[in-house]
Write a structure and sequence with these properties.
Length: 344
């Protein structure tokens, strides 16, 4: 375990954030440091999907893999009040071809965090699950509501649902307080745009920067909602600290819906350029319509930033980033049925 910190002002109150080099983790960490100065943020990340440049210098940072390495020392030393568990590999479409990796980095990693939260009497665990747990929806119903019976259609959604169930059992048996957040396509500055398999808005930006057409799976009529990261930060904090959020499952964001074609057209309007290439369809949910009222009522979520404004801010940031080497899997656990656009 490597420890990095330039923080010379260590407060008594500690917060642990896993996945601190990623979009959610890095941005929430900075928000807490800026708005809740009575807290020290302890960050954990293995840097497999995030970047060191995203990590605020005020964070006590541990470079470690929570699925493989012992976390006891970190928790014993810092005794965190709250834990935000964001670390995950969120590639729904790829997950059927990397099952072992998917379950290790999502389910096994989460079990390790739950153990530490129980042992060290963490006040509350905030876990980011996924809209993938809904699958096609309970009996095809829209919108997806938190009370619906999950029916995921891919290993990623299954892993996230298993984590949710494990956390609830930890509450029932050990008294662990939690709040499960199901975010909907969060995007913005700090996102990994160099991963070939996830974050569609970032994928398009990477493709344009590298003189490639923007690719769309199928006919592009799939519907999604997109949530700008800045609108989600204070609600995430409230998920940990508000009494009303204790032991709740809450969809976060997703108040406006767009087809993939519409989202791409908005980005091309922002860029004022770009071409599109349609690829074969893949195994995915066609229309994802989550409810959002609970995030408004409990967490005070406000839809302040529409897709055009959010993409404009993200694009200005993306243009200034280094053109990093794109992450591509050298080999898959299963090649059978692999889509042509992911083959070598």
């Amino acid at each position: 375990t490597k420890i990095y910190s330039t923080n010379n002002r260590i407060m008594d109150k500690k917060i642990v954030i896993t996945g601190v080099a990623g979009l959610l983790g890095s941005r929430l960490a900075k928000w807490i440091l800026d708005n809740k100065p009575e807290y020290t943020v302890v960050g954990i990340d293995n840097l497999s999907g995030g970047y060191r440049e995203n990590i605020d210098k005020r964070i006590i940072f541990y470079e470690t893999d929570i699925a493989k390495e012992d976390l006891t020392g970190i928790f014993e030393y810092h005794k965190p009040e709250y834990v935000f568990h964001f670390a995950a590999y969120a590639a729904e479409g790829l997950s059927p071809f990397i099952r072992k990796y998917n379950y290790t980095n999502n389910t096994i990693a989460t079990a390790a965090i739950v153990n530490e939260c129980i042992i060290h009497d963490v006040k509350r665990l905030v876990f980011t699950s996924s809209m993938a747990v809904y699958g096609h929806g309970w009996e095809g119903k829209r919108p997806f509501e938190e009370s619906d019976i999950p029916s995921p259609i891919d290993p990623y959604g299954i892993a996230k649902y298993a984590c949710e169930m494990d956390i609830k059992v930890a509450h029932d048996q050990h008294g662990l307080e939690y709040c499960i957040i199901r975010p909907h396509n969060v995007f913005g500055t700090g996102q990994n745009i160099w991963d070939k398999y996830r974050n569609v808005l970032g994928i398009w930006m990477y493709q344009y920067i590298n003189d490639l057409p923007m690719t769309i799976f199928g006919d592009g009529t799939q519907t999604r909602a997109f949530s700008f990261i800045d609108d989600c930060l204070e609600p995430l904090w409230k998920a940990a600290t508000l009494k009303e959020a204790c032991c709740e499952t809450i969809n976060l964001g997703g108040t406006k819906f767009h087809s993939i074609n519409e989202a791409n057209a908005i980005l091309r309007d922002v860029i004022k350029n770009g071409t599109v290439e349609y690829l074969e369809g893949r195994h995915e949910v066609k229309d994802a319509y989550p409810s959002y009222q609970k995030s408004i009522d409990i967490l005070g979520y406000e839809y302040k930033t529409d897709l055009y404004e959010g993409l404009s801010k993200m694009w200005e940031w993306a243009k200034k980033q280094p053109n990093r080497e794109r992450f591509v899997w050298d080999s898959y656990e299963i090649d059978k049925g692999l889509y042509s656009f992911w083959k070598k």
